Structures are given as structure tokens and as C-alpha cells.
């Protein structure tokens, strides 16, 4: 496929057919994804390929606590898991919330799940002293994650970047024997999409790009 076509037609895939994803195709996806940039080219990414149904089911279960909070906050109009605003709900209400299946089912239904880890011992977190949550370390892992999804699309497969399970990182690290100083950055279910969605809705460039200043004129080429 043309590069621009792949970039414009790679959706978040959460429903998968029973088609397998062979080790050969998966290796090809990862072989192309590995050329993503990272800070200082330190390449601190590690990937755990999970095919075992019981392990995938456990990952899905571990995603439920975060999915309950996400669903409960959305229901009252809050931005879920927002680092600037704590939830306006008590723990009992969150615990009683039933999240939609799509927030955990992909880990159970996809033929393979990739657990993407980042070695925090090799990242340069230049925002570590700012009075906000750090986001810069993601620059050393999320380009790789997106390369995985682009390569999967090119091979006729699809997936979705999920993070719900990371709220239970300690349990996931115990399950998969992930050592410190690695952090879990993403969990990606991969498989053959039930539907091939190619018309994605995104804001137009002038709606989120400005010239010279944040409050500058909308940018238009």
C-alpha cells in the first residue's frame, strides 16, 4: 500500500475474526516497526508476545478496574482518567459500574496480544522537574507502537493501542515476569479486522494547527 494510504486508513480495531496471525507475519510487522526513532537511539523497547488464551484472559480481567472508572466518568460527563481533575465519583459507584465489553474483550478475542514495555533506565525525561505529569518519555516508545499498527494495516491486519491494564501494572508485571526498571507503555491486541474501516473522522489541519503562536491564525497551506 502507499504510505499515505496506510496513514489515512489505519483505525482502532477492536473486533477480530478467527483468522490466525502467523509468527512469520508478526515477525515481519515487528521487523519494520523496529526502525521507529527513540531518544538517543537507545532502543529501550521490549515486546512480550502473548498468545496463550489464559494469559490473554487474565490481561482482560486486569483491565476491568480501570475500565469501570472510565465508563463511570464518561456517564457523568467527565473526562476519564484526566490527570488534572480527579473523578467526582466515590469508589463504590465506580466499582458497581459495568464497563462495555469493547474495553476488555479485544485481549480475549485477538489471536495475539503485544505488551509493549519501555526501559526507564535509558530514557531522557526532560520534563521530569515540571509541575505536571511527564509525557516526554513516551517519545521513546509510542513511535514504535504506531509503527506496529501501520505495519499491521499494511499486512491486512489491525489492532488498537490500549492502556486500561496499565492501572494494574504491578500485577501485569508479576504475571509476565517483567522486571524493573521496565514500565508498561501499551497493550496491543492484533488480528484480522471484522470490518475494514477506511474512512476515519479527524479534525482538519486548520482546526488544530496555528501559525507562530498557540493563539495565532489557523494554519492553511
Describe the fold and architecture.
The structure is a single chain. The chain has 221 residues and is an alpha+beta fold. It is built from 9 helices and 4 strands. The protein has a domain at 3-49 and 106-207: NADH Oxidase, CATH 3.40.109. It has helices at residues 3-8, 23-33, 53-62, 64-75, 91-96, 105-109, 142-154, 169-176, 205-208; strands spanning 45-50, 112-119, 158-159, 182-191. It has a 4-stranded antiparallel beta sheet. Helix 2 (23-33) packs across helix 7 (142-154). The two termini are 26 Å apart. The mean pLDDT is 97.
Task: Quickly give the structural class.
Answer: alpha+beta
The coarse overall form would be globular
Question: What Rg, in angstroms, do the CA atoms define?
Answer: 19 Å
Mean pLDDT: 97
Number of strands: 4
Number of helices: 9
- In CATH, the homologous superfamily of the domain at 3-49 and 106-207 goes by the name NADH Oxidase
Name of the CATH first level of the domain at 3-49 and 106-207: Alpha Beta
CATH architecture of the domain at 3-49 and 106-207: 3-Layer(aba) Sandwich
Largest sheet features: 4 strands, antiparallel
- The end-to-end span amounts to 26 Å
Strand order of the largest sheet: 1-2-4-3
- Return the CATH topology of the domain at 3-49 and 106-207: NADH Oxidase
Instruction: Please provide the ordered H/E string of secondary-structure elements.
Output: HHEHHHHEHEHEH
- Detail the poorly predicted runs: none
Pfam family, one: Nitroreductase
Domain Nitroreductase: 12-192
Cofactor: FMN
GO molecular function, one term: oxidoreductase activity
Amino acid at each position: 500500500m502507499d504510505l499515505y494510504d496506510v496513514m489515512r486508513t489505519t483505525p482502532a480495531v477492536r473486533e477480530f475474526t478467527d483468522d490466525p496471525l502467523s509468527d512469520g507475519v508478526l515477525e515481519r510487522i515487528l521487523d519494520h516497526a523496529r526502525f521507529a526513532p527513540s531518544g538517543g537511539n537507545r532502543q529501550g523497547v521490549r515486546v512480550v508476545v502473548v498468545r496463550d488464551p489464559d494469559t490473554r484472559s487474565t490481561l482482560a480481567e486486569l483491565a476491568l478496574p480501570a475500565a469501570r472508572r472510565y465508563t463511570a466518568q464518561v456517564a457523568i460527563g467527565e473526562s476519564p482518567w484526566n490527570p488534572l481533575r480527579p473523578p467526582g465519583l466515590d469508589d463504590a459507584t465506580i466499582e458497581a459500574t459495568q464497563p462495555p465489553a469493547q474495553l476488555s474483550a479485544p485481549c480475549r478475542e485477538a489471536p495475539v496480544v503485544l505488551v509493549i514495555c519501555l526501559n526507564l533506565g535509558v530514557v531522557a525525561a526532560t520534563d521530569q522537574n515540571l509541575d505536571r505529569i511527564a509525557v516526554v518519555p513516551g517519545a521513546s516508545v509510542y513511535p514504535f507502537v504506531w509503527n506496529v499498527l501501520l505495519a499491521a494495516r499494511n499486512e491486512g491486519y489491525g489492532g488498537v493501542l490500549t492502556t486500561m491494564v496499565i492501572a494494574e501494572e504491578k500485577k501485569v508485571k508479576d504475571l509476565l515476569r517483567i522486571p524493573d526498571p521496565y514500565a508498561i507503555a501499551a497493550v496491543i491486541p492484533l488480528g484480522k479486522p471484522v470490518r475494514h474501516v477506511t474512512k476515519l473522522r479527524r479534525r482538519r489541519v486548520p482546526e488544530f494547527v496555528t501559525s507562530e503562536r498557540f493563539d495565532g491564525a489557523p494554519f492553511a497551506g
